[in-house]
From TrEMBL:
<dbReference type="GO" id="GO:0005576">
    <property type="term" value="C:extracellular region"/>
</dbReference>
<dbReference type="GO" id="GO:0009253">
    <property type="term" value="P:peptidoglycan catabolic process"/>
</dbReference>
<dbReference type="InterPro" id="IPR018077">
    <property type="entry name" value="Glyco_hydro_fam25_subgr"/>
</dbReference>
<protein>
    <recommendedName>
        <fullName>lysozyme</fullName>
        <ecNumber>3.2.1.17</ecNumber>
    </recommendedName>
</protein>
<comment type="function">
    <text>This enzyme has both lysozyme (acetylmuramidase) and diacetylmuramidase activities.</text>
</comment>
<comment type="similarity">
    <text>Belongs to the glycosyl hydrolase 25 family.</text>
</comment>
<feature type="region of interest" description="Disordered">
    <location>
        <begin position="1"/>
        <end position="26"/>
    </location>
</feature>
<keyword id="KW-0326">Glycosidase</keyword>
<dbReference type="GO" id="GO:0042742">
    <property type="term" value="P:defense response to bacterium"/>
</dbReference>
<dbReference type="GO" id="GO:0016052">
    <property type="term" value="P:carbohydrate catabolic process"/>
</dbReference>
<dbReference type="GO" id="GO:0016998">
    <property type="term" value="P:cell wall macromolecule catabolic process"/>
</dbReference>
<dbReference type="InterPro" id="IPR017853">
    <property type="entry name" value="GH"/>
</dbReference>
<dbReference type="InterPro" id="IPR002053">
    <property type="entry name" value="Glyco_hydro_25"/>
</dbReference>
<keyword id="KW-0964">Secreted</keyword>
<dbReference type="GO" id="GO:0003796">
    <property type="term" value="F:lysozyme activity"/>
</dbReference>
<dbReference type="Pfam" id="PF01183">
    <property type="entry name" value="Glyco_hydro_25"/>
</dbReference>
<keyword id="KW-0081">Bacteriolytic enzyme</keyword>
Amino acid sequence: MASLGGTRSAPWPERGSDGSVRTSILPQRGRSRLALTGALTGLLLSVSTPAALPASVPDVPPRGSAYMGMGVLAHDGSDDDDADTPIVPRVNQTEGVDVSSYQGDVAWRTLWGDGVRWAYTKATEGTGYKNPYFTQQYTGPYSAGMVRGAYHFATPDSSGGAAQADYFVQHGGGWSKDGKTLPGALDIEWNPYGSSCYGKSRSAMVGWIRDFLNRYKARTGRDAVIYTATSWWSDCTGNYGGFAANNPLWIARYASSAGTLPSGWSTYTMWQYTSTGKTVGDHDRFNGSEDRLKVLATG
C-alpha cells in the first residue's frame, strides 16, 4: 500500500545529566605520571588501525513504522516517472492511493479533484500497532465520495496469522456492505525489521497466510485482498498459487507494467505502480471501471 530512527551497537562516551563530559579532579601527586602515561597511550592510539574503532550497524526502524511498498524500491527498484507529471488514467482502470501514518492528515478533496476514486489506509500492524491517523485517513475518502478500504501490515515473526486477522478486524479492518467499503487487504512483503521472510520456511509462510485469510473471512464474510510483490512471493512462499482462486491480487511494481504475476493469478485486481504520485506518493490502479470497483466493494 512506509524510515525512522533505530539503534546502533557502537558505545558512546558517557556524559553527565547536563550533557557535559564527566571529569575527575586528581590530587597534585601522581599528575605527572598520569600525564606521561596518557601521552604514551595517545601515541599508541594514533598509530592504531581504523579497524580498532567500533563499527556501526544499519538502523532498524521501530515496530509499527512499516508501510505498503516499503521494500519495493530497495529490492525491485523503480522506473517511476517524475512526481510532477500529471496522472493520466488508463482506459478501463480507476485511480487509487494507499496511505499510512507517514502521510498524516491527507488532502482527500485534492485527490478527488485529481481523479482518485479509491483509497486504502493502514489500520494495523502485528497485534500491537494502530495507525494514529486512521480516523482521518479512513473517513476522509468516504466523505469525499471515494470507495475506501483498510490494510494490515503483516509481521509473521511476531504472532500467528489468525491472531493478526482478529486484531485487524477489531481495529478498523472490518467490512460493511454499504457499497463504499472494500474488503480488507493483507500487506505481505519484505520484513523491514529483519530477515526478508520473517525467519519462516516457505511452507510455514503459506500456512501463516492461510491462517490470516481464513480467519478474516470467518469474521467478515469476505475474501481479503493480497498485496505483495512477485519477487517476494517467489522467494518466501515458493511462488505458491493456491490463493489465486479466491483472493484478489494487488501487485506492487513501480514500472510501466505490472510485469510477471505470482503463480495462479492470470491478472491483477489492483496495481501499485508508483511511489511518486501527486499529493500522496503511493498511487494505484484498479483493473476495471469505477462501476466494477463498486461491485468489489459490494461483494
